[in-house]
Amino acid sequence: MKLFFTILFCLCFIFGETGAAAPLQADTIRVALQKGSETIRLDGTGVLAIADDVEPLRLSLPVQLKRVMNGVSVNGRTVRKLVASAPAVLIVNGKGYRGTIEITPSDKGLLVVNELPLDDYLVGLINCEISSQWPMEAIKAQAVIARSYAVYQRETRKNALYHLESSVLDQVYDGCDIEDSRAARGVQETAGEVLTYDGRVIQAFYHSNCGGHTEAAENVWGSPIPYLKGVDCKYCQSAPSVKWEQTLTLGRIESQLRNSGYKVAGLKDIRPGRRNASGRLTDLVLVTANGRQTLPAPKFRMAVGSTVIRSTNFEVRVVGDNAVFAGAGYGHGVGLCQWGAKQRASDGFDYREILSYYYPGTQLVKNNGD
Length: 370
Prior knowledge:
This protein has 3 domains: 2-116, no CATH class; 119-237 and 333-366, no CATH class; 243-328, no CATH class. Helices cover 25% and strands 31% of the residues. The chain has helices spanning 2-15, 118-129, 136-156, 181-188, 218-221, 250-259, 297-304, 338-346, 351-358, and strands spanning 28-37, 39-44, 48-51, 55-57, 63-68, 71-74, 77-79, 82-85, 90-92, 95-97, 100-105, 110-117, 164-165, 193-197, 200-201, 206-207, 243-249, 269-272, 283-288, 291-296, 314-319, 322-328, 336-337, 363-366. Strands 4-3-8-11-12-1-13 form a 7-stranded mixed β-sheet. Strand 5 and strand 6 form a beta hairpin. Helix 3 (136-156) crosses helix 4.
């Protein structure tokens, strides 16, 4: 009987008297871990679960949850929503996560959302985006821009089911398994700090390395952003991916362009078009069986694959049935250059100086967590 009341007390503490999941704290973030998976595996120690916001649910762990016609199948029962928490971490598909895990059906499979304190999220993110073995001032710069980006997206998507993707579509986040003390220190020593422009938290875009000059936002997304104009950066030349080459068949490129909705038939040649002030290509000319067509370079890169064509700063030549690309930099090039920040930190710049260099005109302020 004593054990029963202990469990009941824990449920009330975590889920509230009504059984609905109570907020973890004021400054939390919701991150989509899985979208479209037919099954997921949930495990952990001391896991507490509630079904459909009202009913405590006993789980036999580890448990496999499956998308079924009417909802989520768990231990032979169908629910519309499952929220789980644990004293330490929850394990989803073998990876540990802090906070709560919310599982709901979506049009394609299961939607798995991790809600957790913002700074816990940031500690887990550091070793996904950079390395906690980098100079501390670079880690602190990364913590501030990741927090700023998350806060901006949380406000923008406040009515959505989640605030952030856990992939390069937003920020890479793989849970708490790769947390360490240096990552935690970088987050703690910048606690609550965000970058603002004209009194508002900024879209703190960043990328791996710029190849020599960061990019203006309008050259990638079409709209100018005053604090994302592009700056000279010679600090990332030691990055392992600063120079790259890639050879692709014209057939593969044509197929990927068509899959992305571009009407390309009989691709024969690819020619560099105009370049902007940062040295990146603005557009490309595709020579096809039906003539020539011009395609914006950022859209070409995303269609062919952003990890294949690593930046829009490249040369291209066609040899036989192959296109040979040779370029510099990795990423869209907008905002902070992570490898540049690493070198600037090694050169003695503190994180405030690093941030003001890559985001000119911004102010570093304490966010109130609202």
